Amino acid sequence: MYSRTFYADGRIQLFSDATTINGWVIGGSGPDRMGTVGIFTAIIMSLLTVKIYCFCVKRNWVIKMPEAVPEGVARSFTALIPAFAVAVVVLVINGGFIAFGTDIFKVIAIPFAFVTDIANSWLGLMVIFFLIHALWIVGIHGANIISSFLVPIVLSNLQANANGANIPFAGEFYNSFVFLGGSGGTLGLTLFIAFLARSQQLRILGKASIAPGIFNINEPIIFGLPIVYNPYLAIPFFLSPMVTASMAYWSIKLHWVNPIIANVPWPSPAGIGAFIGTAGDWRAAALALSCVLVSWLIYLPFVKVYDNKLATEEQAAEQVSQ
Hints:
This protein is mainly alpha-helical and 322 residues long.
């Protein structure tokens, strides 16, 4: 049996009615362990099972078949003992937890709930974006490294928002409001150097980077400008995403903009990704474009100094060649 809840904005939420069998509650509107809230448990258990499997194989606790047996068949027998060991270990662990009135899911959820609370705070968000760009500034893809650890959190928050919550840090929060043009929010910077830079090398680089920048790809800017190891642009590269993330966080937190309830492709252009992710909230699109403008204003004084330096060097090089 199912029950439905209708919202004023047209959304319909479907709940399965809970059923209790031998003391276990099945169904209902509580956390779904097969959904995003179960990702943390899945990660831990996958690591555990792989370690147990490798432990058995390295010690030759396997069934070896004669060489005449086809490789595919031999491998299936090789996996029997490690798979049995995995099942026994997990059953013993879970049985121990159940004996104390809990289970693996609830135990693992305790520390990760703390991590989630930190990540969902404004201060935690600032630390996240600082770390991402601290890695980028030394040439390491910070977005891939840090964001990969946060996928379970943003997906869980996305599901919560779809059920009526108002959590800012959900879904493609990064690419909808912060990484517009790529990490560091460089779309405005790219447009500036493409059309207004004095330096010829910056203008050429900017024009070549517009197309990928529209789709939030800015490796040409990060490594070509460059931003990596560049003291002229390090400060705005840190500052811009922290400011735009704050703008988006508090706009959603204060209900000025709808929260993200749909996961959109990360290369969605500025405004479009935010509009679709918030189920068609025009204010989200306006916020995203405002973030582009604010980011450009943050970069402007720094890139002008850098542009003037390069333009002076180009003029000196021309005079020497003449």
